[in-house]
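R.M. (postdoc): so does anyone remember the format we settled on? I'll just put the structure tokens first.
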């Protein structure tokens, strides 16, 4: 068991064994994966029945028509490309995130990544093995922001903010918990807006199998068509990094895939802004 202050962190290959020794929970016997796939599939279908999702499907064509009327018939989005179903995070992806948050990115190691909910001070030694302070199948439905997710794709750069605000307004009208909106623009080339819409989901717990109600988040990513292509490439580049961390000095290695993808994302973001600027100037000229 890893409990000493100066103990080495387990690798991803060692993680499931470390988790079993600490919590007596086997992540490799298939039970956790079967539970995850069952509850996320059923949960996504229930979210698709929610007033928010149903109204979103009806509103997208209306928002597109309004945007066109306000922008010389330039489209907000390609309606045929918009999702009809809600996607889910795979078990392997959830396990990887738990490893990153518990171990790789845990600056408090070997203490839990979260503070005790019962005290404002640091976690006491006698609660280091409290599963509630670590991430795992027992709490990642509620704690991970992207177990349920969907991507909306706009045509133009300025459509991202426009559509994000529309989605946030709809969430305010159709859900009881205020949504959260966060525009993201990182130096590694990622550009998108995220909206988290909260829902109470009736499901069953992993550890007890009891019926429970869990507040989950539907993560809605809004980005442009061209940025979506970059994001897909970034995801493939970062898959390896998530378990080991990024390579050193990739910014000076033009042969590294991260170099071209990251800087391409930033360059594209600039170009999309210039396209909208040119479009709007043309509209003013035509008036």
């Amino acid at each position: 068991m890893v409990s000493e202050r100066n103990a080495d962190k387990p690798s991803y290959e060692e993680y499931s064994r470390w988790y079993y020794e600490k919590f007596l929970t086997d992540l490799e016997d298939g039970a956790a994966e079967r539970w995850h796939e069952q509850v996320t599939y059923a949960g996504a279908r229930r979210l698709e029945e929610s007033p928010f999702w149903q109204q979103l499907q009806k509103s997208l064509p209306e928002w597109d028509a309004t945007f066109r009327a306000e922008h010389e018939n330039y489209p907000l989005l390609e309606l045929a490309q918009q999702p009809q179903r809600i996607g889910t995070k795979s078990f392997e992806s959830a396990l990887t995130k738990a490893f990153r948050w518990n171990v790789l990115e845990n600056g408090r190691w070997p203490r839990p990544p979260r503070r005790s909910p019962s005290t404002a001070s640091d976690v006491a030694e006698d609660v280091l093995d409290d599963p509630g302070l670590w991430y795992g199948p027992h709490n990642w439905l509620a704690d991970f922001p992207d177990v349920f997710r969907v991507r909306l794709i706009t045509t133009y750069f300025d459509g991202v903010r426009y559509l994000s605000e529309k989605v946030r307004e709809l969430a305010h009208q159709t859900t009881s918990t205020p949504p959260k909106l966060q525009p993201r623009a990182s130096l590694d080339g990622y550009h998108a807006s995220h909206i988290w819409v909260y829902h109470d989901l009736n499901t069953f717990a992993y550890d007890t199998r009891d019926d429970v109600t869990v507040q989950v988040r539907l993560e809605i990513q809004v980005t442009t068509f061209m940025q979506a292509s970059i994001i897909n490439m970034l995801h493939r580049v970062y898959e390896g990094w998530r378990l080991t961390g990024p390579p050193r000095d990739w910014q000076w290695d033009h042969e590294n895939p991260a170099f071209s993808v990251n800087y391409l994302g930033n360059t594209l973001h600039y170009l999309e802004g210039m396209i909208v600027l040119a479009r709007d100037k043309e509209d003013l000229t035509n008036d």
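R.M.: ...and that's the designed sequence above, right after the tokens. Also worth knowing: The chain has eight helices and five strands. The longest helix spans residues 257-286.
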